[in-house]
Amino acid sequence: MLRRVLFALCALFVLLPSAARAEGWLDMISLSGLLETDVRFNVEDYRGPVEGEGYNFAINRNDAILHAEIRPHDSLVAVFDGRLRFYGFNTADDLPGLSRDRNQVDPFSVQVDQAYVATRGLPWSWLDLKAGRMVQTWGSADVFNQVDLLNPHDFYDPMDYVRKVPNQMFEVDVYPADWLTLTAVWIPVFKPALLPPSAPLGFAVETDANGCLSSFPAPPLSVEDNQALADLFASVDPCSLNFATPQVNLYMPKYTFADSQVGARAKFSFETIDFALTYYYGRFPYPIAYNAAAVANPSTTQPGKVNVDYVAEVMYPRMQVAGLDFSYTAPWLFDVGIVGELAVIFPEQVTFGLRAYQGDAKIYEATSVNVPSTPFIKATFGMDYTFTKWLYVNAMYLRGFFDEFNDAYGVHNYVVATAELKFRSDSLKLRLAGILNVDDLSNVANPQLTWVITPGLEALVGAFIFGGKTTPSNTYDYAAREKFGQKAAGRSFAYLKVRFTF
Amino acid sequence: MNFRTLGLISSLSLAAAGCGLHSDGLARLEELYPTPQPVDAGTGGPVDIGTPMCSGYGGKWAVRLYQDTSISPLGTPWKMTLIDLFLAEKSAAGTMDLRFCNQDVTITPGPGQSTNLGKAQVPAGLKAALFQAPLSVPLPSDGTFHAADLPWLWALQNLTDPLNDPLPSKDNYMGDPHVFDQDGDTQPGVTLNILSPLGDRYMVRRAVFSFELGKLTLDNQWLTGVLKSRIDESALGATNQLLLTPAPITVNAAGTLYQFRCVGQTYTCEALARDHQAVFKDAPK
User: Fold this and answer.
1) Which residue, among A226, A291, A348, would best test binding to B if mutated, counting the most B CBs under 10 Å from its CB?
2) How does pLDDT run across A440-495, given as a tens digit for each residue?
3) C-alpha pair distances (Å), A209 with each of A50, A52, A79, A206, B95
4) Neighboring chain A residues of B75 at a CB cutoff of 8 Å
5) Which residues of chain B have a CB within 8 Å of the CB of A289?
6) What is the DSSP string of A67-100?
7) How many Cα atoms are found within 13 Å in the side-chain-facing hemisphere of B53?
8) Which residue of A127, A333, B52, B271 is surrounded by the most CB atoms within 10 Å?
9) What stretches in chain A show pLDDT beneath 70?
10) What is the CATH number of domain A2-6+30-501?
């Protein structure tokens, strides 16, 4: 059996070019893909790093995506998902740059989202194996999966929130009965989530029109400690402080066996209900504030000025997660679809520490538990229903957004709603989607109109609008930031996409 | 293995999961920015005070004026322990002359915290100058030890009312005959090093001490009592403009005291500055 797998691998990676010429091999390959042009325009000028900067193009992108599956026979498949992305903005900043490398004028990247091989029913009919670079999705809800922890999200583009960071993993699926699937996954190396380019604004200091310090984001300390820290700087003329851009370093786990991740799932399927019990051991993939040091030194070049460096570390705490998810179609209630996910998280305790130095002298120190070791719950419950052939509605309640981990910010509550209307024989689709943070009332809205020009070709126009205050209600309170209002959430933009799928 | 056993194992492993896992950001900061080991102030182990030979108030004494104060560099009062250290001997004129050795300051903004903000260090030149100008405590003829309203002046002379005259400021000290360069460093007044914000402050200072009735131990080794003090400072100049406004110091009546310990004739200021915590550790309450 192993020899057959090895043979298939050889065929895939070594003999494929020549084999593809043979008629038999062509039948084994299925290709699909997408070409997309994506142009976005910032529709405000107050959510960026510099006040007043906006009303400009944010993205000018072109993607070519290829999905290939090669099936030498029914028991073996190799899957490849690749993406060629052109960013559309010149990065050359001097004259030699224009003649040195076309990639500076027309930068691009090649990304491989999946590249794995899978066997089905080998060596026993009840066993499937997978190995390689994969993207997995566990859970029953739409997008907001609380039990889906194997691949973190890729929020580099917050609009493409279904995209994930691929990782190398090994998977075993066992089918003891028709109604039961057991899955075990091992991921040797942890990878963090990608964050939007606006994320560093969460650590940025605010300056006034004269470039003088006006405020800085509160670290996860008590209000009293943050006030004492602010007083340190308030005693000084804010215009005498040269605040460097805060440096935020990642405190990453080691590449040890103990730092690898495992997941297990028992999935049950019955007539109208599917449900699964899951377990995960690994790390929370979004950064949690760990420590910070502010170091002040008299400027050697500007008499009377003080240089302030702010160096912080974020980390990825360990956790164990017990999960339950289900999807149910209620025949007694007009076939409404009901989904739910519940994750009980047992976190590693994270204690935040902060120090302020004047040269070598320590002038301030404070500490606070940022993440208590107490277990906490994240959950999603939702319903969807197709009212008519032209109206579909999906509504969900969330306890805990993707990046929330019961730290000093807390776990918040959200309502997510999407309505989709179809017109003109489905060639026009209007989708109105939005998320509301019930606790601070900040929100994000995503209206989108899709025109299916011809099967396989569509144009999309829409907007992604953040609502809420960019400044916290209490500058000393770490939890007072508005989820979607704060600048770190991103900028509001309008977009136009043209997409060809095959 | 049935489902019940599996469930039990799962429950136990999950219950144990959150226990013991802990990442401490302050410990990580200590790893990144190790705190220098403090110089041994002599709190442990025996200290050498020479061969104490005191009779009555005669002999040589190590003196600690322990002042429990508050300072408000940022508006919020912080606890400050201000310790003035002297060597004292009875003079022929019937006074106890206290010659300054050092000043030790600890500022604690909150429980378990410490800061250098507003903290001062006395340069060697100022120590020497103050040593040369002793604080003389008159000894009453009845054999007791007490004295009220004794001004201890830095860089000030010939005041009309040494206890209450307003201190000169940076705006009016020029030409004021009461201000003199006591430490001889050519800067106005005396120079004090401030650790944070870092710089030198040129200043005048007045402390007014009242020694309440002292208790001399039977073995003639200790003289202790309650101290009352009042401290005024005024900046005449500074290398850092942030130092031009000294934070007011408020002395708390409770916990402020004086302690004299009999020491040998060869005992020095350097030894006292280094060992004072151990020297006064066993002082009578």
Assistant:
1) A291
2) 999 999 999 999 999 999 999 999 999 999 999 998 999 999 999 999 999 999 99
3) 10, 11, 54, 10, 64
4) 231
5) 25
6) EEEEEEETTEEEEEEEEEEE-------SHHHHHH
7) 5
8) B271
9) 1-23, 235, 360-361
10) 2.40.160
| Nearest CA-CA distance, residue B7 and chain A, Å | 11
Report ipTM (2 d.p.): 0.77
Q: Quickly list DSSP for A130-172.
A: EEEEE----SSSSS--TT--SS-BBTTSTT-TT-B--EEEEEE
**Rounded mean pLDDT, B31-49:** 64
Q: Sorting pLDDT into bands at 50, 70 and 90, what band is B162?
A: very high
Give me the pLDDT at residue A449, please.
Answer: 98
By C-alpha distance, which of A397, A420, A400, A395 is closest to A410?
Answer: A400
Query: A443-451, long-range: CB within 8 Å, 24+ apart, which pairs?
Result: A443/A467, A443/A468, A443/A484, A444/A484, A444/A489, A446/A159, A451/A427
Chain B touched by A317 (CB under 8 Å):
yes
| Best to test chain B binding among A305, A346, A376, A405 (most B CBs inside 10 Å) | A346
Both structure tokens of B82: 């201000």
CB pairs under 8 A between A and B: 120
A456 pairs with which residues across the strands? none
State which H helix or E strand residue B30 sits in. Answer: helix B25-32
Q: Which residues of A touch B32 (CB under 8 A)?
A: 291, 293, 313
Q: Does A293 touch chain B (CB under 8 A)?
A: yes
Q: For chain B, what percentages of helix, strand and coil (3-state, to nearest 5) are there?
A: 15, 40, 45
